[in-house]
Amino acid sequence: MNMSLRDRIRKRREEEDDDMMLFLFPALSLMGSNRGGIKQQRHSHEESGEKVVRRLLQGHVKNSLVAFRMEPWIFNYLADYLRRNELVLDTRIKIEEKLGFFLWMLSHNSSYEDLQVQFHHSNDTFHRHLKHFFKHVLPGLTHNIDPTDFVDLPSGDQGNAASSEEGNTLRD
């Protein structure tokens, strides 16, 4: 066989393979999709996201430190602060749960799918609430924060020398 005949045969086989792929890919995508089929529930309702947060906060302190990178009393105080100043509102999902999955996402570098497994909500739910945290809550905290809302600062005679010299500022 000469080279040109071999090249033509090879080219024709490649074209046939391309035609086959144009037929197979749409068929495979239809088989994989659930068009018109029955939706299956992804998460069991044995433990809702609210129960997950409550379990983490009411259990051992180490659980809260690992999950949210803060102690439970600080978490609860922050949730109360957000509620008092109406930065986050209670809806179907309570403020504690919203704060919980926000802090979980930050502390574990989690994707929406990781949050779905942990807190049993949809991607859309996480997107909506996390977008609110980044667009409204964080800018509101950085511009309107008063440190005395979080910590009772010691007076000059009760505090240590470092705090009284710096005018009772918060230490790192």
UniProtKB/TrEMBL annotation:
Highest taxon, organism lineage: Eukaryota
Domain DUF8040, chain residue ranges per copy: 47-137
Biased composition (Polar residues): 157-172
UniProt cross-references to InterPro entries, sorted A to Z: DUF8040
Pfam families the record matches: DUF8040 (PF26138)
Chain intervals for the UniProt region annotation (Disordered): 152-172
Protein name: DUF8040 domain-containing protein
The species this protein was found in: Oryza punctata (Red rice)
